[in-house]
C-alpha cells in the first residue's frame, strides 16, 4: 500500500487565496538516487539540485532543507500566488513513486475571513498522508505465522479503505 494525500489537504490548498510559507526537506539519498532524472518544474527543486555539486556529499547521509516565508501578508498578491504555484509542483515530489525525494513539506495557506482579513492555516503534506498501523501477532517475541501476516495485511487494507472513504 502506498500512502496517499488526504483529499482535505488538497482541498484546503485549493480553497486558499494564496500561500505565505513553504518548508521543504529533501533527503540526500533521494537526491543522489535518481533526483537527476526527476523534474517537477519547481524552481525550488532546481535550487536544491545545486547542492549535488558539493564535493563529498554524495557519499554522506544528508538532507537539504529550504524555507521560504513571507512576512505577515495583509493582502494577496503575486508573491502568494507564486508560492502557491511552486507548492503545487512540489506536491508531485511527495508522491512515494518519485524515489522518496521529499520527506517534509509544510505550508501556510491563506484564507479570507468574513471581515476580509487574511487568516493563515498550516498544512503538513507529509503527515496528512493516509497510512495505517496495525498490530501483527500476539506479542513482540512471537514468530509470525503466514496466517498472522495475512490477517494483519487484510486488517490494514480494510482500515485504509475505510479511511479513504471518510477523508
Describe the secondary structure blueprint for this structure:
Layout: E1 4-5, H1 7-15, E2 18-27, H2 28-32, H3 43-49, E3 63-69, H4 78-94, E4 102-112, E5 118-124, E6 129-130, H5 146-166
Antiparallel strand pairs: 1-6, 2-3, 2-4, 4-5
Can you tag this structure with a few keywords?
single chain, 167 residues, alpha+beta, four-stranded antiparallel β-sheet, two-stranded antiparallel ribbon, 23% strand
What this model shows, in words?
The chain has helices spanning 7-15, 28-32, 43-49, 78-94, 146-166, and strands spanning 4-5, 18-27, 63-69, 102-112, 118-124, 129-130. Strand 4 and strand 5 (118-124) form a beta hairpin. The chain has a four-stranded antiparallel sheet with strand order 3-2-4-5. The chain has 167 residues and is of the alpha+beta class. The chain starts with a strand and ends with a helix.
Task: Describe this structure in a few short sentences.
This protein is an alpha+beta fold. It is built from five helices and six strands; from the N terminus they run E-H-E-H-H-E-H-E-E-E-H.
Low-confidence spans: pLDDT under 50, at least 5 residues?
A: none
Shape: flat
Strand content of the residues, in percent?
15-25%
Number of distinct beta strands: 6
Report the order of strands and helices: EHEHHEHEEEH
Number of helices: 5
Sheet with the most strands, sense and barrel status? 4 strands, antiparallel
| Spatial sequence of strands, sheet with the most strands | 3-2-4-5
Which value, in Å, is the CA radius of gyration? 19 Å
Amino acid at each position: 500500500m502506498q500512502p496517499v494525500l488526504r483529499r482535505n489537504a488538497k482541498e484546503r490548498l485549493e480553497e486558499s487565496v494564496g500561500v505565505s510559507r513553504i518548508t521543504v526537506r529533501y533527503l540526500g539519498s533521494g537526491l543522489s538516487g535518481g533526483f537527476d532524472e526527476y523534474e517537477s518544474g519547481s524552481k525550488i527543486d532546481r535550487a536544491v539540485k545545486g547542492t549535488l555539486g558539493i564535493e563529498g556529499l554524495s557519499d554522506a547521509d544528508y538532507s537539504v532543507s529550504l524555507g521560504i516565508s513571507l512576512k505577515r501578508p495583509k493582502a494577496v498578491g503575486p508573491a502568494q500566488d507564486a508560492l502557491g504555484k511552486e507548492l503545487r509542483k512540489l506536491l508531485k515530489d511527495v508522491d512515494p513513486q518519485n524515489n522518496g525525494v521529499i520527506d517534509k513539506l509544510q505550508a501556510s495557506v491563506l484564507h479570507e475571513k468574513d471581515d476580509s482579513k487574511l487568516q493563515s492555516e498550516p498544512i503538513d503534506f507529509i503527515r496528512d498522508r493516509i497510512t495505517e498501523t496495525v498490530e501483527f501477532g500476539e506479542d513482540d517475541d512471537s514468530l509470525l505465522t503466514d496466517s498472522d501476516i495475512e490477517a494483519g495485511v487484510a486488517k490494514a487494507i480494510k482500515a485504509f479503505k475505510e479511511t479513504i472513504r471518510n477523508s
